[in-house]
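Example: BED-type domain-containing protein.
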Amino acid sequence: MEPSATMPSSESESVPNVIHLDSTLPSTLDSSLPTTSPQVCPSISRRRGRSEVWQHFTRIEDVKDPDEAKARCDYCGKVLLCHPKRQGTSSLKYHNERCKAFNTSGVGRDNPQSKMTRTRKMGVDGTTSNPSVGLAKYNEQKIRSTVAKMIIVDELPFRFVEKQGFKDFMAVVEPRFPIPSRITVMRDCMKMYMLEKEKLKNMFMASDYKICITTDMWTSIQNLNYMCITAHFIDDDWILHKRIIYFNKVPDHKGITIGKEIESSVLGWGIKKIFTITVDNASSNTTAIDYLRKIAKLRDDMVLDNDLMHIRCCVHILNLYKFKSCAEKQNILGGGLLCLDVPTRWNSTYLMLSMTLKYYAAFEVLQDEDNEFGPYLREVGQ
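Written out as structure tokens, the predicted fold is:
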């Protein structure tokens, strides 16, 4: 029996009914269904970047490959990869540190980029603490002031910053720092000097410290006279301080000249009370002290009636006395002092050798009696 081509009517009624939606339905049905736009990079988070580096980059949205998230630099236009699970923001920060357009725009100085580095804290005495990891910000002005302080503390020439070694060092340590010229460094050093001078002057004027002064004078190989004045004082915390308040060229070694230079320096710094003035045993210093005593009496700035103002350098006196006693033991009589060789004076070498031969025996005795004599001369010779 052949199967019939048509199903029996009774069986067709058992087939479940199927509803077909067509265009005849109301249009409100389509509007009620939720619609979503296709995501270009579904694997990339759309949250706002929390890193500060996004202030200088723009994310590129029309990226077809989800694994190639990109961002464009707002200053030079360079496109960089920034996938959150691959590159992150490290490549953006690296580019920001070396982008010339960013660093020259001024934004890099106003909004300095931060980086983790080992930092040291510097104390008031110039010592540094152990390094600690912290967040350091690029500060061009602070680096310049530190370079100026290095030049001053280490007694380096201003042209040190123009040497290739320093340039290579800074290129590795901080490539963003523009190397200053020696003229700029000189100005920074003078600016720092004027600031420190003003602070010290204000301290002298505001306090009532009793200042002790020491002086030293010498003649250079160019036959120029120089004078150095140092102020010593104890602060409110009983800490001893020493500050050079004068270092300049003077016309001669006369007592009146020395006294006037000390007076000018003391008045310029606002020092009110001078307790002592320590000088060597030269006769001109006695004249200088007498002049200063008279000036202090007129200004009513005396301390203990200036009885302790004149202090003679005991080390200088002891050295002279010790050498004189050694010369007397060798029966070396007569005047004449030791002198040094001066390159600008043709006869100074002859005078130095002649006086050395005269006191040769005294030097031998001095070496036996003073253990520090030989090492001191060897140290000076080096």
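The first strand starts at residue 57 and ends at 60.
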